[in-house]
Amino acid sequence: MAAKQSPVFRGFPERFVPFHWHGDTFELPDRAMRTASSKGCRNQAFVYEDHVVGLQFHLEMDGAGIGRMLKHGKDDLVQGPYVQKPEGMVGRTELASASKTILYTLLDSMERRCSETEHRLYASD
Predict the structure, then answer these.
(1) How far apart are alpha carbons 52 and 2 in whole angstroms?
(2) Contact (Cβ atoms closer than 8 angstroms) between residue 82 and residue 39
(3) Three-class secondary structure of residue 91 per DSSP
(4) Closest Cα partner for 53 from 43, 42, 62?
(5) What is the pLDDT of residues 16-57, one digit of tens each?
(6) How many helices (H) and strands (E) does the chain have?
(7) pLDDT band for position 117 (50/70/90)?
(8) How many Å separate Cα 12 from the centre of its chain?
(9) Rounded distance, CA 19 to CA 33, Å?
């Protein structure tokens, strides 16, 4: 898995189920490294030049946020092999909790990388 090669994503679990809500996708920028993919979406996450992170999923979502998405955007949900039904999205607190832990892992990793870069810049002065 490419995530294991990335200092930013190294602490992620091999498999996890984040919240998804997208009908569109993207192509990776030149020189970007794909770090996560799924059957439903090839480009789930990437790192660009070791300091820019792109995600096609939502680690920040909790039950209240999912409820608001369903209330205001339910029409976005179309039938498809990888599209959950609304009833499958609510009440999954264990997934939201796991996503929050992964989000904190990502943010801590990014902060560490920024600190290391800042230290190298000031050390070279």
Answers:
(1) 15
(2) yes
(3) coil
(4) 43
(5) 889 988 778 889 999 999 998 988 889 999 999 877 899 999
(6) 3, 3
(7) low
(8) 10
(9) 22
Burial call 47-81: b when 16+ CB within 10 Å, e when fewer: beeeeebbbbbbbebeeeebeebbeeeeeebeeee
How many CB atoms are closer than 10 A to CB 43?
A: 18
User: Which amino acid, one-letter code, is at 8?
Assistant: V
Helix axes 63-73, 93-123, angle to 10 degrees: 110
Q: What is the pTM of this model?
A: 0.80
The Cα–Cα gap between 35 and 43 comes to 8
Q: Where are the alpha helices (DSSP H) in 45-92?
A: 63-73, 86-89
Q: What angle do CA 115, 121, 123 make, to 5 degrees?
A: 95
- Separation between Cα atoms, residue 99 and residue 62, nearest integer Å: 9
Q: Which two tokens stand for residue 34?
A: 């794909």
3-state secondary structure of 32: strand
